[in-house]
Design goal:
This protein has 340 residues and is an alpha/beta fold. Helices cover 34% and strands 15% of the residues. The chain folds into two domains: 6-218, Rossmann fold (3-Layer(aba) Sandwich); 222-322, Helicase, Ruva Protein, domain 3 (Orthogonal Bundle). The protein has 13 helices and nine strands. A seven-stranded mixed β-sheet has the order 4-3-2-5-6-9-7. The protein has a two-stranded antiparallel sheet with strand order 1-8.
């Protein structure tokens, strides 16, 4: 495995003719203990397929390959991708006959948000990633929101985001509900800024997600999930307000119907959205029944056109609009992309 320390990272970057690119939020892992923790959480095994996002200098990639994993790595930086092709030449796939063989590497240049996951890797597979923090939410929606889903994700993300994803009722957000509906979430380890070169201005964390199988009894049929996300999305647009009032305003459903649904689900109408567990959202969706096609939850607005429905977002994907008020301001983030 390549050496892991700040000097070695700087030297490798010089040899590649590059430097950490702020535009790509690049911070490279230089802490062996953290590297070992990621590998332990990922538990790569011979022949196990792993989708790695942001391989960077290939340090984590090398660990996965040494364990015998069949890695598909997605790297946005063309200079780092070129270096990986040289540094890991022995593992790079040379033909279709090698696809998925233990210790093999398929390298894809581009953004994970543009990659066709179904075409890139066949299930079953796991994901290991050091995500640019400002795209954590869309990446989670991409990986969890549709088949093929991974079995397990081990992600390096901003500490605040990891704790939000794994938050208990009382501190839930739209992203918490979405992630915990699809997976069991846990924070494996807090990672200090000094574990990266250059050091970001925020703490990071290793987040583990064990994805629920498609036949899990807690999952809804795919055709019914849209109403769930419309409901949750609507509520979290005013997450500090009482649930009954929020849903009446955001869903444009008569107050008596909202009150009856909350009572049937055993939910106090004065509770705030962040206090509900995933099971309670599922119970409320069942009690509320189908939502009309034009009753998608919408952002609170003082614009008369919005109130009249002219700006209704009925054509949008509700799982793509994770409560913006609950997200971290990208301007305040220092975002690692490459695990290095």
């Amino acid at each position: 495995m390549p050496r892991v320390d700040p000097l070695a990272v700087r030297r490798a970057l010089r040899e590649a003719g590059t430097r950490p690119r702020k535009s790509l939020s690049q911070n490279f892992l230089v802490d062996t203990d953290v590297l070992d923790a990621i590998l332990a959480a990922a538990d790569p095994r011979p022949g196990r397929r792993v989708l790695e996002v942001g391989p960077g200098l290939g340090i984590l990639t090398a660990g996965l390959l040494e364990a015998g994993a069949a890695v598909v790595a997605v790297e946005l930086d063309e200079r780092l991708a070129r270096r990986l092709r040289g540094a890991l030449a022995g593992a790079i796939l040379r033909g279709e006959h090698d696809a998925g063989s233990p210790g093999s590497l398929a390298l894809i240049e581009g953004s994970i948000l543009d990659v066709d996951v179904a075409a890139a890797i066949a299930p079953p597979f796991d994901v290991v990633a050091n995500l640019p923090y400002h795209i954590t939410s869309p990446v989670l929606h991409r990986l969890l929101g549709a088949e093929p889903r991974p079995d397990r994700c081990v992600l390096m993300v901003q500490r605040e985001v990891a704790e939000r994803v794994a938050a208990p009722p009382g501190r839930m957000s739209y992203l918490s509900v979405f992630a915990q509906y699809h997976a069991s979430a846990s924070v494996v380890r807090i990672v200090p800024p000094t574990s990266f070169e250059p050091a970001p201005s925020v703490e990071s964390a290793i987040l583990a997600l064990d994805i629920r199988p498609a036949d899990d009894p807690a999952r809804l049929p795919a055709a019914e999930e849209d109403d769930l996300w419309r409901l949750v999305q609507a509520a979290f647009r005013e997450r500090r307000k009482m649930l009954h009032n929020v849903l009446v305003r955001q869903l444009r459903i008569p107050p008596d119907r909202i009150a009856a649904a909350l009572a049937a689900a055993g939910i106090d109408p004065d509770r705030r959205p962040q206090t509900l567990a995933v099971a309670e959202w599922l119970a409320l969706r069942t009690a509320l029944g189908p939502l009309d096609a034009d009753r998608r939850g919408r952002r609170a607005s003082t614009d008369p056109a919005d109130r009249d429905g002219a700006a209704d977002d009925a054509g949008a994907d509700p799982t793509d609009d994770a409560d913006r008020a609950d997200e971290v301001d990208p301007a305040e983030e220092a975002d690692p992309e490459s695990a290095g």
